[in-house]
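<context>
A single protein, sequence plus fold
<sample>
Here is the protein in question:
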Amino acid sequence: MPEETAPRPPAPTCPLTQGPDQAAVRAPDQAAAEALIQTAAQAAAHLPPTEPPAPEPLPGGAGRGAAGPCPRGPHGPGSDASPADVPGLAGPETGASGGGVPPMPPLFTWEFASDPYPAYAWLREHAPVRKTTLPSGVEAWLVTRYADARRVLADPRLSKNPLRHSAAAHAKGRVGIPGERSADLMTHLLNIDPPDHTRLRRLVSAAFTPRRAAEFTPRVQELTDQLIDAFAERGSADLIHEFAFPLPIYAICDMLGVPPEDQDDFRDWAGMMIRHGGGPRGGVARSVKKIRNYLADLIHRKRENLGDDLISGLIRASDHGEHLTENEAAAMCFVLLFAGFETTINLIGNGTLALLRNPGERARLQAALTAGDTALLDTGVEELLRYDGPVELATWRFATAPLTIDGQHIAEGDPVLVVLAAADRDPRRFPDPDRLDLSRRDNQHLGYGHGIHYCVGAPLARIEARTAIGTLLTRLPDLRLDADPDELRWRGGLIMRGLRTLPVTFTPPGGPASS
C-alpha cells in the first residue's frame, strides 16, 4: 500500500497471515473492483508516504457515509463561515463578549484522522452539540460530551432505522453499510428499534452468550500463537496485516460455523471491505452481496445439519421461540461478522500502538504479566478502549420527533451521531483523560456503546484483545515501532478508527533483531 512507512515484510508462509490487501488479490471480481476504485475519491484515500502541503479531505467509508470530497460550503468542515454562522456555535460562545474563542481545528482532514482529539476537545468545550456536514454531504448533529452522549445512546426518541432519515429517498443510502440495502440486509440489530430489536436481540443473546465466548478462549489463544509463529523468526512484522486482521476473521468464522475450506473466501471479502473502506462504496457493496449470498446458503445447510456453532444456535433459538426469517438470520450473521472483525482489528492495532507510545505503562503491564498477574491486563484493555478505541462514532440515529440536546433543537428526521472518542476523553467524567492509565478503576467508558444497542459481541472482543496484546508483550518483549508515529496512516472513514499498517521490529527467538 502506498501509505506504508516501512518496506513490506516478505510474504508469510502461514495461510492465516494474509492481510486485507493480500487477501483481496484472489477475489474473482478483482478486475471489476479495481475498475471501480479508479476515482478521485479512491485516489485521495491512498496518500503518498509524505504529508500533503495542505489538509486533504477524507472520503467516507463502509458504514460511514458515502465517499466524496469534504464539503466546504456553509457549515461544512473546512468552511470559512464564522462561528456565529454555524448551528450549535452561536451566542456567547463565539467570543462576541470579547473573551475570544480559539479557532476550531478542521474536521475530516488527514491530520484530523491521525489525531482527532484536539478537535474533539474544542467541540466539547465550545460546541458540544454541533450540526456539521459530513464528507458524504449528509448533515448530522455531533454530540461530544459524556453526559449528553450517554443520554442520547439510551434515548428512545432516537431511532436506529435509516428510513427515519429526513433526507430524500435517493440520499438515504448515504448512511449505513454500503450494499446492505441492495443485498436485503437491513433487518439487523444496528438498523432496527423495539419491538423488532427486542425480539432479535433476545434470539442472538440466547446463542451468543458470554459463556460461549469464554469457552472459545483456547481457540483464540491457538490462533494468536499460530499468527505470531509465522513472523516471529523474521524479527519484523506488520501487525495489522499479519496479526490484528486475520485473528478476528478466523475467530468469528469459527464461532459462526463457517467451514475451514470456506474461510479464505471470508478473508477475501473482509479484506475488500477494509481495503476499500475509505473509497467508493462499490467495492464494499460487492463484498457485502457475496457475504449475504454465502450466508443464506450456509444457513440453509445448517438447518439440515445443526452443529455446536453460533448459526446453529440462532436456528435452535428461532425454532424454539420467536421465528427468525431467512433475511433476518442472514442480516444477523452479517452484522456479527462485520462488527466482530473490524472493531477487534482496531482495538488490537490502536491498543498496541498506544502501549508502544507509552513505554512506562507498557513496562508496568509487562512486569505484571511476567509475575503471572493478569488484573492489569483486564483493566488495561478497558483503558485502551477508552483512550483510543476502535469505534470513533456510534452508528447512526435519527430523531423521531423534535427534541432538544444540550440546548440545541433537533428537527424530526435529523441524523444524530454520538462521538464516542470525544465523550471518553471528557474531563468532566474522566480525570486527566488524555493520559493512558492502565489501572484506571472508575472507567465506565462508552467504547462499546450504552443502552439497548450495547455491542453484543463485546465479550468476545475483550477476550481477543486480552489474548492478543498479552501474548504479544510476553512472546515479543522488546517489541518496538518501526516507523515515525506521525507517518502512520489511518483508514479514512467516520464510524471506525483504525490503522492501515503497524510496522514493528523485535528480537527473534535466538537471534538478533532486524534493523
Observations:
- The chain has 19 helices and ten strands.
